[in-house]
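Researcher: First entry.
Model:
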Amino acid sequence: MTTVTNPYLSGNYAPVGTELTATDLPVTGRLPEELEGRYLRNGPNPVTAPEPTSYHWFSGDGMVHGLRLRGGRAEWYRNRWVRNSTVAAALGEPARSGPVHADMDFAPNTNVVGHAGRTLAIVEGGARPYELTYELETVGPCDLGGTLPGGYTAHPKRDPATNELHAISYFWGWGNQVQYSVIDASGRVSRLVDIPVGGSVSVHDMSITERYAVIYDLPVVFSLEAAAGGAGFPYRWDPEYQARIGLLPRDGEASDVKWFDVEPCYVFHPLNAYDDGDSVVIDVVRHQRMFASELLGPNEGPPSLDRWTVDINGGKVIEERLDDRGQEFPRVDERLVGRRHRYGYAGIFLEKDAGLVKHDLDRNTSEVRALSRSGGASEAVFVPRHADAAEDDGWVLSIVYDADRDASDLVVLNATDFTGEPEAVVHLPQRVPFGFHGNWVPDA
C-alpha cells in the first residue's frame, strides 16, 4: 500500500497539536529594552487531520502565535487557534457569534495586524477578519462596527502619514470585480470603490503610493471545476488571461483607473511602491506562473525580485530583474510604505537550506544571512529603534526553526550588522510551523 505524502503536512510545515502559554522565556543575548509590544504571526494549522492528497497549504485552519516583549524580557509566548465555528466544534467549544460574510466562516490563517486597538486575524477570498484579544483569545468575526460590507484581504497597506489601512479585496461571488477599501485611523471603513477587472481573479496583495492604489490583475482566476472538485484553493493559472496592473488615484473612482500590461506572471507580494515624477516604481517578487501544475501550494519555480517602472505618460511598464535568487515574503520599513525606500528584506531560498536577505537598492547590493538547518525561509520584520530613527537603524525580527531542538526561536538581528551575531534569540517551547505573515505590534 502506497503512503501518500503532502509536503505541507510534514517537517516544520506539519501542524502543532497543542496550545501553550509559556512565561519568562529563556533568552540568549540581550533583548533591546526598546522592544515593548507583541510579535504576532499567523499561519495554517489544521485542527483535524486533512486528506493529504487534496490538502492545500492555503486552506489550513488559522493559528496565531505571539510573543510579548517588555523591559528586555520575553514575558510570554502563546499560540491559539482562531475559533471559527468548525474549529470551535472540533475543540468542543461553543461557536463565537458575529457577522460572517456570505456564510464564509473561515478561520483566518494568513496575517494578523493591530489597528485602532483591535487585534485582527485576516485572510483573503471573501471572509471577514476575526477579532482577537490582546492574549490571542478569539472574540469573533468582525465587520468593523457594521462598516465593512463584504470580505477583506490578508494584505492591507498602512499609510504611515494617516494611519489608514488601504486594501484590495476579492471574492468569487463578486464576479469580475475587486473592491478597494480604506479603513480610517479609528477603525471604520471610510471609502469603498468597486473596480471591474478582467476576470474573477485572486489578488493576494496590493501596493500604495502617495498618489495611487496599485491593483494586480494577474492570471490566477477562479475555477468552477476546481471548486466543484473540492479544491482547497479553487484558483488556477489561465495562460490566456492578460496580465496587467492598474493605478487608481486614491481619491478617484473606478473609471479613473489607468491600466498597464505586463508580461504574464503572478505576484503574491510586492516589496513596496512609490511615485517618481510622472512614473510609479513598484518592486515585486515575481513568479513566472502559479497553480498551473503544482496545485497543493506555491511551488512553480523560484521567484525573483523585479522592478516595474510604470511610465504613465508613455502607457508602458519597464520590467527589470533586481535579483534572480529565489525569494519571498518581502518586507520594507513600514514607515516608508508608499514612499521611496532603500532597504528591503526577504526570505531567500539557498541551495540546501534557507536564509534572510537584506537588499540595498541604492547600491544594488545585498547581504545574506544563512539560517542553517532551518529548511524554510522566514519573513523578516523591521522595527525601528525609535520613531525618528534612520531607515536602517533598528532590528530585524524573524521566527526561525531550530531542527536540533525541533522548536522555533525568535531571532533579533541588528539591521546595521545583518550578518553578525544576533542581539538576542528567544527560545520558544515548541515549533512555529512554516506559515505566512506577522507583524510587530507595539504597545504604545
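Researcher: Second entry.
Model:
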Amino acid sequence: MFRLNKFISDTGFCSRREADKLIEQGLVTVNGLVGTLGTKVTEQDQVLVQGKPLKAKPRRVYLAYHKAVGITCTTELDVKGNIIDAMGYPERIFPIGRLDKESEGLIFLTNDGDIVNKILRAGNEHEKEYVVTVDKPITEQFLRKMASGVPILETITLPCQVKQISRQTFNIILTQGLNRQIRRMTEFLGFNVTKLKRVRIMNVRLAELKAGQYRELTQAEMAELEAKLLSSSKTEEASVLAVPKANTAQSHS
C-alpha cells in the first residue's frame, strides 16, 4: 500500500511535491474516482494522471559489489575510476554509502532511494564488518582500546567488536559511520592500515565475490534485510541520538 503521491513519483513521472499539486487540482484518478492527498493505492489499482496511465514502475535493483582498491565511490562520471564506469551496469544506480579509494570490499548499489538512509543512519546500529591489516604486530592494549572507544573527530567512537586474526590482522564490527573511522582509530593508537576490506553489511556477506564482480541480492537476503530495516529510522534523529557531535559522513574506512 502506497500513498498516492509516492506511487506517482516512484514511476518517475514527477516529484512527490509535483504529484501533490496534480492531486490537489483533481487531475489524478484512482479506479475512476478523483484521488485525494490521503488516498492509498496498490499495484493493482488503476491510476491515471490527466486521463493517461502511468508508466510501469522501474524494477527495483539491489546489488552487492566487490569494490576494488582504486575505485572511487561517486556517481560523477568525470571522476576517473568512478564506481559507475567500473561496474558498467546498464541501468541508473548509485552506491549506498562509500568505501575509500584505497579500501576494498562490499558495497551496495541500488536505484531505490528509500532504502539508503535506513541503512546508513548510525543510530540504526546496522553492523558492518571489516578485516584490517596494520603495519606492525597487534597488541592486547590495541585490541582493548579499539573495542572500548577511541577519541576521533571531536567524539569518542562507540564500543565495537574487535578480534585478532593473525599477527598484524584483525576483524572489527562497527555500527557507526564516521569519516575514515578505522584508519583514524588505528592512527590514534600508533598503527597504520596497510589493507582494509569490508566483508559484510548487515546480513549480506562478500563471500566469494571477486574484486570487480557484482551480483543481485538474493530473495532470502532481501527478506532478512527488509525485516531488519522495519524498525529503522530514515530521519536524522537516529544519527543525532547515537553519535552526538560526530561527523556523520558515511565512510567507515
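Model: Note on the second entry: Residues 123 and 238 are 4 Å apart (CA to CA).
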